[in-house]
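Let's practice the habit of predicting before peeking. Look at the sequence and jot down your guess about where helices and strands might fall. Then scroll down.
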Amino acid sequence: MAPETLKQVLESTDNIADTFRNTDINWQPYVFPDEYTNWIEEQRAVHESVAVVDQSVHMEVLDIKGPDAIDLLEYVCVNNFEKARTGEPPQAINYVACNPDGYVISDNIVFHLGENEFKSVGAEWPHNWIRYNAEAGDYDVQTEVTYHPDMYGQQDPENFRFQVQGPNALEVMEEVVDGSLPEIPFFQMDTIEIDGVETYALSHGMAAMPGLEIFGPHEYHDEVLDAIFNAGDQYGIRQLGSKAYKTGKIGSGWFVASVPAIYDHDELDGYREWLGADSREASLSLGGSFDSDDITDYYMTPMERGQDHMVDFDHEFVGREALEEMDQERERVTLLWDAEDVVNVYASLFGDGPTNKFIDMPDVANQWSSIHYDKILKDGEVVGLSKYPGYLVYERKFLSLATVDLEYSDPGTEVTFVWGDQTDKRRVERHDPVEIGATVAEAPYVRGGRRQM
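Done guessing? Here is the structure:
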């Protein structure tokens, strides 16, 4: 009998870490094209002029409403919701959820849009955690998934969602809005009007460039996008495909995903029984050279993800006691790959003998795994994990977000990491693993308008 829950999936395998490492990626949330024009010019537009990305259809949207909405959200995440209790909407909160041991389940952006009314946008992992706790706890709250990327082509989302970013982003938006564009501090919100359509605006820039994320009624999607293109034409505006969009996050220091910390803790047994065998949590695809039989070795803390400033101990939340006692062992950094070593990987394709793992450009790893972990070495010992790799043409570098032991986290430290994936994935070709040199740099590495959330 086929498993029906995540708990049954775990019971059906000897080692879930090994199962995930040998699972091919079977789902791609980026339902928009890889490129609209050319990924190199799309990356350059973000850094040199202005770019727009249509975020309307690739993220799940969860509505949370009711008198206990704040109590629920505050309990299942590390963030303090005091400003939602006392301040006026709209507001945005970079929501981070942890398990009882203080390891991250996932993160999203939660928008406070009205009294007892919230909308969470992003991955489904934190949404499942919110929904489960809403049902299992004594909360007067209603939750509803109003859009999921699987609905693409069958149902429109409630809202259009565009991100306009780059050195000329605010000049473009100044022309797009009715009246004058309000000054919005970083990661703060306001409302604007575009051709009479009330639109929310969040000051935000995922590629470390200044910009706005705007959203409003989806029926005006085409009209608003056309207005952005018309205003941006003089600056050479480009629409980002998934290649340029995904790689921009590396320079901005945002960890896209780590294994959700839900597979081992006894207190989460009910949650594993609630999650279906068809959930994304039940079919992860782990890639990279790091290989451990212990699934908890793939978990990450808020500190090593660079999210420690979001943890607020002035309220009760899942994982609080563990985080209060936890010492930071690793630091979020950027690895700058050695160019000669990278060229040698490509050169292996043109000589005799085994080849090395091919390096896709610019989105290095997400074509063959959903979550990536390469082991970082210093003097032959594992001292960290290289997590999210890619190429940025405006830096002329391959780089990756990583987490390393504190003693090796200083900028300029030389390390190596192992490039390869010795598993049975059909999407991974036969190859010999190879060490690539890297230099530790700060994260965020690209600066140009983004500050700490």
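How did you do? Residues 124-136 form the longest helix (13 residues).
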